[in-house]
Design brief:
Helix content is about 40%, strand content about 20%. It is an alpha/beta fold and about 350 residues long. The chain has two domains: about 25-125 and about 265-315, D-Maltodextrin-Binding Protein, domain 2, CATH 3.40.190; about 130-265 and about 325-350, D-Maltodextrin-Binding Protein, domain 2 (3-Layer(aba) Sandwich), CATH 3.40.190.10. Helix 7 (about 190-200) runs parallel beside helix 14 (about 330-350). The protein is globular. The chain starts with a helix and ends with a helix.
Length: about 350
């Protein structure tokens, strides 16, 4: 009897040794910019579905992030990159840092956002950089809103506008590109002629959006600024209401979305070449385009989701504007001329 017991114990030990152990949790690394934000519970859904831990590697602003990805392309630091926009897209594609993947969920993305026909990247979100205005200040001044960029050079708008430096600010660069689209580089009035007029009309230039909006703009939250016009986002009025936590029923600011006055920033994500987790990376790209992720974008990053099937929160539906006819420049043209345009702008406006 004891012999049978010992034999059974031995068999049980052998079987236990052969039994499958739970799969070790994998790690998927996603490189992104510092201001990237998404709800923990949303990412948790992907992690649970794929038994993976998602690690976000924040790498500065969008330009710095892309430079880091290019410099490390032979030994990639991440599996996926999120946040290269249309002002840097050509550089990313030329550097060949991505592996192509035609996502199934691209069927839900409007064609005008799909700038890469070879599917090295997928569009994830977009937002319009537009002029914002202080409603009360404009009412007090008795001024009409500018209906074009050219209107900003009229004497009645002298000393009213604050903008961001395009060399140090993403919205500043977007606004510069809008002026290049509107006026061009040659002809009777070029974009530099326009900026000379703004300079002569006391335009204020600051390094970044925070300073422009929360210090110099008169309508920015608790700001004590004196400038009732600022370069910001078409979603900023909705953010004013949302972050007031019920104190505001309507925004004290508005966005100027007249044709040609805004510039659309489109953000993209792609699978970095050399990832050892190709299958997981593909699944994550699909997840980025899913309604679960897309529905979370507006109140996390204050831009519009790329997917047409996403649901917008009420505050976006009520107060976030979209530019119906934004300024446009080919992304390869931007890449070829970005630095020269910024240098010419600096020489014209700041020196």
């Amino acid at each position: 009897m004891k012999r049978w017991i010992i034999t059974l114990i031995g068999i049980s030990m052998v079987l236990a040794g052969c039994a499958p152990t739970p799969e070790a949790q994998r790690v998927l690394k996603v490189m992104t910019y510092d201001s990237f934000s998404i709800s923990e519970e949303v990412i948790a859904q992907f992690e649970e579905a794929h038994n993976v831990s998602v690690q976000f590697l924040q790498a500065g602003d969008a330009g710095t992030m892309l430079n880091q990805a290019i410099l490390s392309r032979d030994n990639p630091q991440a599996d996926v990159l999120y946040g290269v926009d249309n002002t840097f897209l050509s550089r990313a594609l030329t550097a060949e840092i991505f592996e192509p993947y035609e996502a199934e969920n691209l069927k839900n993305i409007p064609q005008n956002l799909q700038l890469d026909p070879d599917h090295y990247v997928v569009p994830t979100d977009f937002g319009d950089v537009c002029l914002n205005y202080d409603k009360a200040a404009f009412e007090e001044l008795g001024l009409p809103l500018p209906e074009s960029l050219e209107d900003l050079t009229r004497l009645e708008y002298e000393g009213l506008l604050v903008v961001e430096n395009p060399a140090s600010s993403s919205p500043g660069l977007a606004f510069l590109l809008a002026t290049i689209s509107a006026f061009g580089e040659s002809g009777d009035e070029t974009y530099l002629d326009f900026w000379r007029q703004l300079r002569d009309h006391d335009v204020l230039v600051v390094d970044g959006w925070d300073t422009a909006y929360y210090t110099e703009f008169s309508g920015g939250g608790a700001s004590e600024g004196t400038r009732p016009l600022v370069v910001s986002y078409a979603t900023s009025p909705a953010a004013e209401v949302y972050f007031s936590e019920g104190a505001l029923e309507t925004p004290p600011t508005g966005a100027v979305t007249a044709p040609g006055t805004c510039f659309s920033q489109i953000e993209f994500a792609g699978i970095l070449k050399g990832t050892p987790h190709r299958e997981l990376a593909e699944a994550f790209i699909e997840f980025l385009l899913s309604d679960t992720f897309q529905n979370d974008i507006p109140l996390q990053m204050w831009v519009f989701p790329a997917s047409r099937t996403a649901t917008l929160p009420e505050v976006f539906e009520s107060y976030a504007a979209k530019a119906e006819e934004p300024a446009a420049l080919p992304y390869d043209l931007i890449e070829a001329n970005r630095e020269a345009w910024i240098e010419a702008w600096t020489e014209t406006v700041l020196k």
